[in-house]
Amino acid sequence: MPVLPDYDSPTALKAFLDERGMAMQKKFGQNFMVNRAHRNRLVDALKVEEGMGVWEIGPGLGAMTDALLARGAKLSVFEIDRGFAAVLRDIFSGRENFSLIEGDVLRTWKKAAEAEVPPRLFGNLPYNIAATVIADTITGGVRFDRAVFTVQKEVALRMAAKPSTADYSSFSVLCQWAYKVTPLMDLAAGSFWPRPNVVSKAVALDRRDDWPACESPELFMSLLRGLFSSRRKTIKNNLSAWLQRPGRLAPGPEAAYVMEQSLERAGINPLARAETLAIADFLRFSDALHEAGVKP
Ligand code: SAM
């Protein structure tokens, strides 16, 4: 039976990698969670039950994988680093409830979701990958009952931010459209090896049962990005810049007309800023633009 590395010891982890001629790859945002108490708290936060399906993105050398399997998770892990994938296969492939999907999760998750979307998702990931996975799954209509992510603290706060606050962004709206977002504990840089330059924070996402429908999730997401593209500008100014992209407007009515009609239909003040709007406002606005034939 392969021996697990000592996940709590940076020295032992370094020796484990050295023995295999492996090195950490900065481009993949690799920082191992070396604090056992935090690992246990994160697994607790995921609320895994015996036999429950879980996806873990970015297992690294398997510190969380081991903890998740110990709780009885039926686990699929997504890892991009070939060396780590080989180690994971070596350590865990004998375990009944383990499967590995090697490669970039942004390319592999869809096929896996076609087979089954599990109730739980866990990820300790570089910010851009976490944000893209969250956005892509939501717009692709895939949601998990509960997800726990460890991300940069600012990102966790942005995900949970309320309207008219500095952290409120297109990403806040998208996350809160699909999930109830709850910031959990801070994770100091010293809980990871190598130490990152930022403080991390865990955040929980719980599927919203009252998820309001939207005619075109792609248009909704694109509109959000457009309306928040210059925070200081009014909705009208951001909107007219966003509408100018070729192909966005159906041939026929002029941009000014579409804009005026859609704003009026959705009851949006053109001189307000996007940060003052609630999720329901963005949804009404996106649906009004969709009805006017605007494309994402
Ligand atoms: N979960 C481990 C832990 O807590 O010790 C490692 C976390 S480390 C911050 C991030 C992990 O995500 C690394 O193993 C890295 O190789 C992996 N990763 C980064 N980008 C990825 C991607 N696009 N697809 C799959 N895995 C990725």
Write the layout of secondary structure elements.
Elements: H1 10-19, E1 32-33, H2 36-46, E2 53-57, H3 63-70, E3 74-79, H4 82-92, E4 98-102, H5 105-115, E5 120-124, H6 127-139, E6 146-152, H7 153-160, H8 170-178, E7 179-187, E8 192-193, E9 200-207, H9 217-227, H10 235-243, H11 255-266, H12 279-291
Parallel strand pairs: 2-3, 2-5, 3-4, 5-6
Antiparallel strand pairs: 1-8, 6-9, 7-9
- Sheet having the most strands: 7 strands, mixed
Poorly predicted tracts of residues: none
CATH superfamily of the largest domain: Vaccinia Virus protein VP39
The span between the termini is 52 Å
CATH architecture of the largest domain: 3-Layer(aba) Sandwich
Helicity level: 40-55%
So what's the overall shape? elongated
Radius of gyration: 21 Å
Structure description:
- With 296 residues, the chain is α/β, with parallel strands linked by helices.
- The protein has 2 domains: 10-207, 3-Layer(aba) Sandwich (Rossmann fold); 217-291, rRNA adenine dimethylase, C-terminal domain (Helicase, Ruva Protein, domain 3).
- Helices cover 43% and strands 17% of the residues.
- It has 12 helices and 9 strands.
- The protein has helices spanning 10-19, 36-46, 63-70, 82-92, 105-115, 127-139, 153-160, 170-178, 217-227, 235-243, 255-266, 279-291, and strands spanning 32-33, 53-57, 74-79, 98-102, 120-124, 146-152, 179-187, 192-193, 200-207.
- The strands form 2 sheets. It has a 7-stranded mixed β-sheet with strand order 4-3-2-5-6-9-7, sandwiched between helices.
- The termini are far apart.
